[in-house]
Structure formats: structure tokens, C-alpha cells
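We give the chain.
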Amino acid sequence: MSNLCKMSHSGAKKRRLDKNTQDNLYFDSYSDVTIHEEMIADTVRTNTYRMAILKNSKAIEGKVVLDVGAGTGVLSIFCVQAGARKVYAVEASSIADQAVRIVKLNKMEDRVDVIKGRLETIDLPEQVDVIVSEWMGYALLHESMLNSVIFARDKWLKPGGLILPCKAELYVAPINDLVVEDRLNFWSTVKDQYDVDMSCMSDFAKKCIMNKDITVNLVTVEDVLSHPSKFAELDLHTVTLEQLKSVRGQFHCECFGSSSVNALCVWFTVTFPSEEKPLVLSTSPFKPETHWKQAVLYLDEPVDVMQDTKVEGEINLFPSEESARHICIHVDYTIGNNKKNSKTFSIPDGYCETQS
């Protein structure tokens, strides 16, 4: 899981953080109660995982499970409730100490081993039948734990083993963010209010607001201007670390009606296998709210559209040069008959992300 936490902003020149520094910042962010409170309180997230684990009880009963990035240990406890013989709950941050207490409180210490350490450095006494992990970050891959899940899969999972969730998909749609529209129009209203003309501030406001930040916001259904377009899919049984260096795909949308496109909205789903219908955890604006919200990418200029106006192009998600845990998103896009535009977005400076 993930959440943006504001840090003090330093004017220091950007530099690539070494991997240990990146990891330490990342794991430290999980040492506070707030992020875990937010994740457990996200009922869409937590209930979907609980249902997915219980629905796979036939595959889990009597088996060995590895929980990657176990946090408070809630998924490990769900696995014991589904009949797991043994769960190895691996957690690198100090929240592992609380997980030990929670496991003991639930009288499961004989079946859940909390291992405090980084997944890539710990040792397990046996191979596992199941991997469960809540690894997803903003826009799916920002500070996600997917690299660790892939490492665990390749080192510890038995052939034919179960991975929960087993698939992730990325979607995009054009939106009209009305709040941004109102903020840009604000400067033209000042004269009527105070008899001081500040309309020249509009261009400055546009540069500040429609910048290169990946903005994590709740997008309302009314703001979405087309059906979503799926542009990428990851199969957790086969995806490689090399493929995560560039997750890209084409998108094609057709607008519902007359409006103005001022941003693109990106979200994800993950799918859990099931003997019946697969379970899907969705962060779509068309579905109930989750703590992931949506990733909003503001265009440099709003573009007026009509019904059936095409919004199309290519999106590429790749790690930042400064920190491999941070995601950048490059978009090449064309709206209607306008010329092709390109823009690269990143999580703003002075922010870190926290995870489960």
C-alpha cells in the first residue's frame, strides 16, 4: 500500500540516492502507526484480501505461506484463518515488533513466524506453497514492493505455487478536473471582487498547477470523459525485474461529449484467482474509494473536446534516476486533430511514499 507523506523540502541539488539510503527511507516510513491505520481502515482493500484468502482456502489449507511486507501481520492472520500450516511474515520495518504482539494476541504464534528483515536478505527453512503480498503503490508501481515479490517468487515459491494477487492491470482516461478549472479562472474574478485586475496571474497559475507532478487525488465519476483504456498488464507468475524498468502500452479513448480535457487519470486493478469468479481489487474512480485514490497527470494546456473526439497515445512507467523506488510516467498523446504532445511526470520533490 502507499501514502504520500510530506517531508521538509531541501534546496539541495538532486542526486541519485544509493540503494541502502532509498531502502532505509522507505522502511522508516512504515514505523509510524498512521500508515497502518490508513491501510486497515481501507475496507475495500482489507476485505478484498480477506475474501480472496478465504476463497482460496483449499489451496492454502495445510500449506506454507510467505507474506511479503507483512506490516501488522493482518494478511498472515487471514491465511491462518484459511487453514495455513505455517506463515512466514517478513517485514523490514520496526512495525514487525507490533506484528509479533498482534500474532500472540490472536494465539497464532505457533503458526505465524514474524521475520524482521529485508526479504532479499532473510533465510527461510523451507520452500513455500503460497505468496501473499499487498505490494501496490500509487499508479501501481510508485514505491511498490513488486520487486521483492518477484525475488520471493523466484527463490522461495514451489513450482505451480499460488500468488495472491496474481495479475495487475493499468488503465487511463481523460478527465476534466473542475477544481483546477475553477482555480485557473479565479484570477479573472478578482477585479469584480476587489476592483484590482489580476488576470495576468492566469499564466503563472497554469504553470504552477498544471506542472509535471504526479498528483494523487480522488477523481469523481463526473470528471471522467471517456471509457477507460487498459494500457498494461502484469502477470505475477511471469513478470521479470527487467520488464519493470519500462511498463508501457498504447491507449485509445473516445470522449462522451463536449468538455475540456485538462488531465489524464491513471489507476490500477489487481486480480485474485478463485475457483469461482476471480476477485478484483479496483482503484477506479467508478468503484468505491480506496486509499490509493487515482494518479492525475495534468496537461500543459486544456483542450476542448466533443463527442467521439479521440484521445490516444502511449504511456511508459519507469523508475526515477534519483531513486529506483520512485516512479516516473512519460506520456505521448494526441487529442483530436491537435499535434502530438509529450510530457514526463514524477512524484514531487520533498515527498516520500509509505507502504504496508
Residues 2-15, 350-356 have pLDDT under 50 and may be disordered. The chain has two domains: 15-166, 169-354. The radius of gyration is 22 Å. The chain has ten helices and 17 strands.
